[in-house]
Amino acid sequence: MKEVGTVTVRQDADEPRLKVRIYRNDVNFYIRIESNHAAIPMSMPMRINVTNFEDAKDNAEKFLHIIRGVFRTALGKKPDLPGHMKKLEGEVPAFLHFLLTNEFVGQN
What we know:
Strand order of the largest sheet: 1-2-3-4
Number of helices: 2
Shape: globular
Helix content: 25-40%
Radius of gyration: 15 Å
C-alpha cells in the first residue's frame, strides 16, 4: 500500500491530536487513524468503499470528525461536529456507550 494523503481537523488543546492517513492499493482505498497520545493505539488500515481520492478524503474527514466527537463526549464535552454532520451529534453518546459496554442503549 502506498500513502496518498493525510487528513487532520481542528482540535482543542486538551484533546489528543488525531489524524487519518489515506492509503491506496491498486483500486482500493484504506484509512488508518493515528494519535500522539500513548493511550490511543494506531488502528489497522480499514478499507473504505470509494473509487477516487476526493471521495476517500471526504470519508476520512467525516470519520475523523466522528472519532473526535466520541473522544470529546468521553471528556464530558459536546461532540462539536461540523454543521453538515449535526444530525449525528445526538447519536455520539449512544455510540460511545456501545463502544464501552458492547450493549445498545435500552437493550435488555
